[in-house]
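User: hey, got a sec? need ParB/Sulfiredoxin domain-containing protein folded
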Amino acid sequence: MCSKSIDEMLLSMGIDDSLKGNLLNEELKEFPRRLTDIDKFGCCEKEIIDVDKIVGVARGCTPKNWAEALSEEYFHKPSTCMKYVSKKAFQDFLLNDKQSYAVGLPSIVEVDGEYYIYGDGYHRLVLARTLGNMKAVVAVRREDVSYR
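Assistant: Yep! Here you go:
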């Protein structure tokens, strides 16, 4: 384990206490379906999304807001910050679809036009969403409305 704290690593990416304070007011939406319903969604499609459009997390244990998503309880892979020397280097990695060979593309599910983090890439997408104004290559599964 590295000697830097999560807060020090977040600060190195530009996430300071002021930004965390703002993120306290940005609540995550609750996933509007049962998690088991995701099995009925369409197959994954690789695409570039605007991470600012991510509204929540489709997992059993969900943080209340984006600041909590960065807490040690949920953001327990500090190496996500350690790998990148700058926000631009992190953005370049997120847009490189070759990342799928190394760590797997981040997974998103889309319901009613809204994105939820699901499966691989939670830490990368939470960091990108909190940094703001980023895009990422992801694997998107869309709800098949015929199953409603």
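Quick note: DSSP finds seven helices and five strands in the chain. Let me know if you need anything else on ParB/Sulfiredoxin domain-containing protein.
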